[in-house]
Amino acid sequence: MNMLITGGSGFIGTNFIRYLLLDSDFDGRIINVDLLTYAGNPENLKDIEKDFPGRYAFIQADICDKEKLASIFNEFDIDTVCHFAAESHVDRSIVAPDAFIQTNIIGTFNLLQIVRDRQKQISRFHHISTDEVFGSLGADGFFTETTPYDPSSPYSASKASSDHLVRAYHRTYGLPATISNCSNNYGPYQFPEKLLPLMILNALEGKALPVYGDGKNIRDWLYVEDHCQAIWEIIKRGKTGETYNIGGNCEMENLSLVQMLCDMVDELAPAKHKTSRRELITFVKDRPGHDRRYAIDASKLKNDLGWTPKTDLKSGLQKTIAWYMEHPDWVKSVKTGEYRNWIKQHYK
Ligand code: NAD
Ligand code: DAU
Fold first, then answer.
1. What is the pLDDT of residues 68-115, one digit of tens each?
2. Which domain holds residue 114?
3. Would 101 be classed as within a structural domain?
4. Which atom of ligand 2 sits closest to the CA of residue 153?
5. Which end of the chain, N or C, is more open, meaning fewer C-beta atoms within 10 Å of its C-beta?
6. What is the predicted pLDDT for the residue at 172?
7. pLDDT > 90? residue 56
8. Residue 50, class by beta-carbon neighbours within 10 Å (0-12 exposed, 13-18 middle, 19+ buried)?
9. Mean pLDDT, the chain, integer
10. Catalytically annotated residue among 34, 62, 131, 233
């Protein structure tokens, strides 16, 4: 298998590449194509680049650059695509949606066009999407694969658009595509703009913990390694043309989650004068269009492919907090922007 992974230097992509090469039965070659926006950090895969010279290659490229992409498909004889690359942060999409439209919609369209031109050599195009395309749930119910799309933010609207394009290319041109829609991932290597890494680092540094609105919005939390296993199962055994929901079975109100995290940080790294990190919680202005509740019914993945999440929230959070505490160099590099200098020296 010659697998093109887009966005492999971001949070989930990094974890997926590490999982494939270090922990799974994958025996092929990976070509990671990433533009290295603020969210892409090639330091995450420095050891992989060194340890797997014949099985891992990195190319800095924009998925909106069709010519460059086409040359990569030819040079590396790509037969499988796993498409992560995206602008992924909802708050950024509210402030500046342009890059979301460009990368998430036009970038996906470019990839589909290239794959369409090479139908005979492509055995799978897997598209990574989000539960946010379904919009907001009330107090009851779950998103299933047939829930109608109803996105609320420019981010989720752009992801919904890319999902529609992938599905259309399957139906119209017979592209061997699969799609997965998952809930909130957490774990190592996540950029500290997202709720959990932001709260972990702020709690460790004694900074305010900003909770949007009343803190009663509910998200389902999926440990990133569980997500990676699900994606690999879908690529290997999922049926083309199908969509699979991936969830963590861990629904939680934001405020309760942050309180739980404060207590864990207090235990792992007691604060000076034994104060509780809960005192740092600060309610701030709500996110516009903030979806109230997400919850995933992942029974299709369980019934068809035998996948269920292995990590409960408590142990996943413990592992995640420990990872951030054990990687001060990574944290410093990301927070000070040093990793951008590393990129300039190595890739530009
Ligand atoms: P991320 O922001 O951490 O990483 C995105 C990566 O894509 C970065 O490495 C970035 O450099 C790269 N990229 C951005 N624009 C690009 C372009 N034009 N060309 C090439 N590369 C580009 O995102 P993530 O959290 O790892 O999410 C990965 C995928 O999973 C996204 O498609 C996202 O929508 C989806 N998703 C994420 C979550 C989550 O909780 N993080 C949940 C559901 C779905
Ligand atoms: O559901 C899947 C989605 O999860 C992915 O598609 C997105 O790429 C990913 O960013 C994530 O989106 P969210 O908006 O749910 O994640 P975020 O970490 O930004 O916020 C999680 C919840 O916490 C949400 O209800 C908003 C709230 N929040 C977030 C931040 C950053 C706060 O209360 N305070 C904060 O500072």
1. 999 999 999 999 999 999 999 999 999 999 999 999 999 999 999 999
2. 2-189+222-250+291-311
3. yes
4. 14
5. C
6. 98
7. yes
8. exposed
9. 97
10. 131
Catalytic site residue from 34, 43, 87, 132: 132
Question: Is 219 a pocket residue for ligand 2 (Cβ < 6 Å)?
Answer: yes
> What is the pTM for the complete model shown?
0.98
SS3 call for 261? helix
Whats the size of the chain, residue-wise? 348
Ligand 1 atom at shortest distance from the alpha carbon of 182: 43
Cα 197 to middle of ligand 1, angstroms: 16
Ligand 2, atom 20, residue with closest C-alpha: 195
Q: Is the CB of 160 under 6 A from ligand 2?
A: no
Contacts of 2 (CB under 8 A, 6+ apart): 28, 29, 31, 76, 77, 78, 79, 80
Q: Per the domain annotation, does 233 fall within a domain?
A: yes
Task: Give the total number of structural domains in the chain.
Answer: 1
State residue 120's pLDDT score. Answer: 92
**Residue at 26 is within a domain:** yes
What CATH number does residue 175 fall under? 3.40.50.720
Residue with the two structure tokens 């598209």: 127
Whether 197 is in a domain gets the answer: no
